[in-house]
Amino acid sequence: MLTFSLQNSGTVKVVNGGKKLVVFPDKPDPKLDLSLMAHSEEEPGEGVISWPGEYDFDGLSVRGIGHGEGDKVSFVIDVDYVRCAFLASPLEELSDHILELLGDIDVLFLPADDAKLGQKIIDQLDPRALIPLEMKDKDAYSDLLDKCGAKGNSPEKEFKVKGRGGLRAEGREVVVLK
Length: 178
Description:
The chain has a single domain, classed as 4-Layer Sandwich (Metallo-beta-lactamase, Chain A). Helix content is 16%, strand content 37%. The protein has helices spanning 96-102, 115-125, 138-147, and strands at 2-8, 11-16, 19-23, 34-36, 48-49, 53-57, 60-67, 72-79, 82-86, 107-111, 129-133, 158-161, 173-174. The protein has a 7-stranded mixed sheet with strand order 6-7-8-9-10-11-13, with helices on one face. Strands 5-4-3-2-1-12 form a 6-stranded mixed sheet, with no helix packed on it.
């Protein structure tokens, strides 16, 4: 079972059984198995991924996707047959190449930097579950929640997925994490 929880603005903790990782922390967390960093580090320590590429950790497949000159990295993780995308902030248009690298996404973690661009990305990726991430701009977050029909949804402490079958077969679930 996958469990997702919000650590702070834009930082997500993922627990898969005994494995724990954090996506987009301000600094790596040595207490966790893996830290996925949004910005490339010259010499990442053990358990830190901050560069584009493909990585495998005990059944957890990680793909780092570089943007621009490699100054920002988004991630796709595949675990328990669930494909999750974590897009780096600030959001930018997704090229055809990046869309191809992302592939079919089950759960999308989307920073709420720009509601209009966010809606476009949601339409392009068409995830089965969407988790908007509140960033610095609270108005953009509110606008994105409104555009995806989640305004008024009760915030949840965590979101659990029991394999791919734990997701909706049709439609989209929008989860507000707090």
